[in-house]
Amino acid sequence: MSRTLPARPNLEYLKKEAKGLLDALRRSDPSAQLADAQFALSRDYGFDSWPKLKSHVESIAVLDTPALAGGWIANVAKSTRHPANPFRSARVHFTIAGDSIDIVDEFVDESGKAVRGRNHVDADGVERDGGNGYSLSAAWIANGLQTVAKKDGEVIGRTTYAVSADGRSLTISDDSGDQRIVLERLLQ
């Protein structure tokens, strides 16, 4: 049986899966070792060895997670703000664990009032009910994240979170063209 790895595989999960497979192998062969289970699991996912599977998973983690994760501050001069949202300043922080993303945003609105929000999305492409006829789906794209919002089954907006190749800037844009927020990475 050949299986396909998810887009963002988790090495810790694969290690647990190998240990579970070892228990099953030992029922038929008491001399089975963890390396045997890791090899069998690697082959099941289409890799020649555990080190190759592990290397592949680690390379995905290095490429994907740090790109969007962390803190960002808006460069208002480079941004095109939505007419209904002319904020003075904004900060966004992304905490990512696999496909689970927590987003904390803070902005100062046009009147000078500070507003803080917290959202959670799962970037697995699954549409989730948000109540009152609203739903949201999110999925990883090559350089970031894309979300699709619907109201009563009709798409009402798409937002793209695109990280620059050098990882120093993030552009958040909607499909209407009314808003394009440029953010710069906060140094930790």
Give an overview of the whole structure:
There is one protein chain. A ten-stranded antiparallel beta sheet has the order 4-3-2-1-10-9-8-7-6-5. The radius of gyration is 21 Å and the shape is elongated. Helix 1 packs across helix 2. 26% of the residues lie in helices and 39% in strands. It folds into two domains: 56 residues, no CATH class; 117 residues, Calycin beta-barrel core domain (Lipocalin, Beta Barrel), CATH 2.40.128.20. The mean pLDDT is 88. The protein is α+β, with helices and mostly antiparallel strands and 188 residues long.
Uncertain parts: none
Radius of gyration: 21 Å
Widest β-sheet, arrangement of strands: 4-3-2-1-10-9-8-7-6-5
Note the total helix count.
3
The CATH topology of the largest domain turns out to be Lipocalin
Total strands: the figure is 10
Mean of pLDDT: 88
CATH superfamily of the largest domain: Calycin beta-barrel core domain
Order of helices and strands: HHHEEEEEEEEEE
Proportion of residues in β-strands? 35-45%
* Apparent shape: elongated
User: In the CATH classification, which architecture of the largest domain applies?
Assistant: Beta Barrel
Helix-and-strand structural type: alpha+beta
- Terminal Cα span: 45 Å
Question: Mind summarizing the main beta sheet?
Answer: 10 strands, antiparallel
Helix content: 25-40%
